[in-house]
From TrEMBL:
<dbReference type="GO" id="GO:0048254">
    <property type="term" value="P:snoRNA localization"/>
</dbReference>
<dbReference type="GO" id="GO:0070761">
    <property type="term" value="C:pre-snoRNP complex"/>
</dbReference>
<keyword id="KW-0479">Metal-binding</keyword>
<comment type="similarity">
    <text>Belongs to the BCD1 family.</text>
</comment>
<dbReference type="Pfam" id="PF25790">
    <property type="entry name" value="BCD1"/>
</dbReference>
<comment type="subunit">
    <text>Interacts with FBL, SNU13, NOP58, NUFIP1, RUVBL1, RUVBL2 and TAF9. Interacts (via HIT-type zinc finger) with the RUVBL1/RUVBL2 complex in the presence of ADP.</text>
</comment>
<dbReference type="InterPro" id="IPR007529">
    <property type="entry name" value="Znf_HIT"/>
</dbReference>
<keyword id="KW-0832">Ubl conjugation</keyword>
<feature type="region of interest" description="Disordered">
    <location>
        <begin position="238"/>
        <end position="267"/>
    </location>
</feature>
<keyword id="KW-0863">Zinc-finger</keyword>
<dbReference type="GO" id="GO:0000492">
    <property type="term" value="P:box C/D snoRNP assembly"/>
</dbReference>
<dbReference type="GO" id="GO:0008270">
    <property type="term" value="F:zinc ion binding"/>
</dbReference>
<dbReference type="Pfam" id="PF04438">
    <property type="entry name" value="zf-HIT"/>
</dbReference>
<dbReference type="InterPro" id="IPR051639">
    <property type="entry name" value="BCD1"/>
</dbReference>
<dbReference type="GO" id="GO:0005634">
    <property type="term" value="C:nucleus"/>
</dbReference>
<dbReference type="GO" id="GO:0000463">
    <property type="term" value="P:maturation of LSU-rRNA from tricistronic rRNA transcript (SSU-rRNA, 5.8S rRNA, LSU-rRNA)"/>
</dbReference>
<keyword id="KW-0862">Zinc</keyword>
Amino acid sequence: CETCSKEEAKYRCPRCMKYSCSLLCVKKHKLALSCNGVRDKTAFVSVNEFTDLNLLSDYRFLEDVGRTADAAARHCIVHSPATKRLLYCLRNKARGCNIELKTLPVGFTKRRENSTTFNSAENKFYWHLKLIFPHCHAEYTLKGVPDDKTLADILKPYIDPVESDPVVCQRLKIYTASPQSDVRILMKIENRSRNSVRYNELDASRSLLDNLKGKVIIEYPTLFVVLKTLKNDMVVLGQDGSEPAENSDSESSSLSSAEEGEIRDSS
C-alpha cells in the first residue's frame, strides 16, 4: 500500500494508479492528492501499449463528446439574447484591454463554472481564476479577483508563511518554506499544437490585467505556481533554446509568422 506502507495492496486507483489496501487508505490518498478516482480517458498511451480496449475507450469517448456537443448546441441558453449580449460584452471589453478572450459553448465545464464579470461603473474585470500548485498536487479556484490586484497579493493567502491559512499553509509547505524569489508563475500559451506546449512566465509584481495583456484566454486564466529549485516538465517560451520569448509589452502581442504558420498547420 502506497499510503500506509503496512498492508498488502488490494486496490489500484484508476486515475493516478496508486496502490491501496483499504477504503480508509483510498480516501486518504484521494484527499492528499486531490484525486477523484475517475479514470482519465484522455491520458497518453504509447503505441506499444495501445490495445483494442484503448481503441474502444477512445471510440466511446468521441461518441460522448459528440452527444455533449449536440446537446449543448440545442440548449435554449445558447440562443438566449441576454447570454449572447453578456458574452459579446465580455469579449469586447477584453479586446479593449488587449486580451483575446475566447468562450466555449454551453455544456463545457469551463463555460459552466466561469464566473468572470465586468463592472462598467468601475471599468474593471473581476476574474474567475484557477491556481494550480503542481508540486503539491493542489489547485484552488478564486472568484471575483479584481484585475488591478498584483499576482503577489493574490498568492499571499496561499504561500505566504505569515498571511496564509494554516490548513493551506500545511498543504503547500513546500512553497511556504521556499524563498519568494524561487516562486515562478506560469500560464499556458493557447493555440499551440499538443506536442509543442509552452508557457509564459508572469511578473508577480505586476497586476493581473498587465500580465494578461497580449495573451489568449479561454474562459478564464489558469496560473501554474512552480518552484525554480524543483524539476517540472513545463517549458517556458524563450527558455528552451529554440524559440524566442514573447514580448510582454501590450503593443507587441501579435504572434510571429512562424508561430502563426504552426497554429494553422496544427488546426
